[in-house]
TrEMBL record:
Coiled coil: none annotated. This is non-specific serine/threonine protein kinase. Residues 12-258 form the Protein kinase domain. It comes from Amycolatopsis jiangsuensis. InterPro entries: Kinase-like_dom_sf, Prot_kinase_dom, Protein_kinase_ATP_BS. The keyword Cytoplasm does not apply.
Amino acid sequence: MSSEGTIVGDRYRLDQPIGRGRSGIVWLAFDTRLFRTVAMKRMYLPVGLPPERAEQARAMAMEEGKAAARIEHPCAITVYDVLPDGADVWLVMEYIPSRGMSVFLSEYGTLTPEQAAALGILLGDAMATIHAAGIVHRTLEPGTVLLADDGGVKLTDIGITGGGPHAAYRAPEVTRGGPPSPPADVFSLGATLYTAVEGVPPFGEDGTSPERPPQQAGVLAGALSKMLRSDPTIRPTMADTVRALKAITVGREQTAFVPPTAPAMPTMPVSWPGRSPQAGPTQQIPPSVPTPQALAPQQPAQPQQIGQTQQIARAQQSGPLMQLPVQQVPQAPAPPQPMQVPRQPTARYVPSAAQQAAAAQAVREKAAARRRMILTVAAILCAVLIGIGVSELLFV
């Protein structure tokens, strides 16, 4: 069993667990050769296999890791290395401060249709690049989507078999024993986006229940129904899916996906007509007037606040909250100017008479030493010249 401080491959030091996927624990590690922080995961290998089968499983894991390292896309996790260590195979990846999409949904609730569509564009574009490289993702689901702290999106476990896909996001033909394929990835993306807006998978946690009609998908419902078709031959391609999702988000850029750790808007004191501005931020704000915080993305609210926000959004049929008239927002009072304090003059350092005398004596000694050196060099040169002249006279 791996533990903190373990050195893998004589190079990578495991520092602490930072997550757990279907194929095992993800570790925060340190590359002692290149001096950088990385993320490492021990790839899933079946236990109890005969030696020949175990060696084949390790070879297949190595090939899957090498294939994932070929993918270069802003929304695909970068694989640095894949290396064997004893009976294990480790995957070395870039470290992205983030949280899994499944964790985010359980903590902050569902996304709006426009947010889910914007997320689907990023994931679909990465998946199209993966398919163009001849690779099938196999395990696309909320657990393999990372929502980065800086607002980015990263897709992990690209082409990694691992412990197998979650049943709720597995295409029907794969469940029946068919091989993974690009149309199967389209189905998995549709089930993932369905879960993002509805909060539950479309066919239940086991993937075999009757399809649940979408209730909150809104403009996204049509695209989801095409992606979730049971017949893979009539599903749209990943490129067609991206184009459809882009058509949904046209003119709705302000409602794009909000990162899970977006900074909250600062609290500002509000002054209302007929009230003293000294009341400060503890004043009660009338519920009929939107606050500045309601007009911009902020820190995700609690689940009950999310429910209220969704009700307000559904009531605003004319547009999102970002389009409310600006004149309805009261102006905040100007902050008081800080008191200007006159600067005191900086005291100058004045050496004492003894220090001045010592410094002058040192200068005189250095000058005398330079003079002695010059006189010595001049005397040597004169002696050399006299010697040369005497030698010429003697030889003449």
